[in-house]
Structure formats: C-alpha cells, structure tokens
Specification:
The chain has 65 residues and is an all-beta fold. The chain is 0% helix and 58% strand. It has no helices and 2 strands. It has a two-stranded antiparallel ribbon with strand order 1-2. Strand 1 (3-21) and strand 2 (27-45) form a beta hairpin. The two termini are 26 Å apart.
C-alpha cells in the first residue's frame, strides 16, 4: 500500500490585523507568523477506490484520544 508520512508544523500569529471585508465576504488580513517546533505527524495511505476512512484528532477511538 502506498503511503506518505509528513510533519505538519504549527505556527503562531505574532500580529493579526483585520484590514476590511472583501467583495466575496472574506476578510482581508495582515499578519506576521512564526513556525514553531510543535507538530502533528500526518500519515496518508492510498486505499482501494471508493473507500474512505479516518478519525479526527481527539475523536473517540483515535490514537492518543
């Protein structure tokens, strides 16, 4: 089975300014971010067609829950 494993590093917002609302309803932001060493280990496996499985972090039955 083909799979990949990566680390999804966290970031913190040092500043976060809302500049206004765009025509599409989203907010325009200005921010300064810093990556930190805290991370999640993410593993993705290719499964046979039409099969979808997964648990959200912290969900009942998830590893470490």
């Amino acid at each position: 089975m083909k799979k990949i494993e990566i680390k999804a590093f966290a970031k913190i917002n040092l500043t976060l300014d809302v500049l206004g609302v765009l025509d599409n309803g989203y907010h325009e932001l200005a921010m300064i971010m810093q990556q930190i060493l805290l991370c999640d280990d993410v593993q993705v496996k290719w499964l046979p067609a039409y099969e979808v499985r997964g648990l959200a972090a912290g969900a009942s039955g998830a590893p470490g829950a």
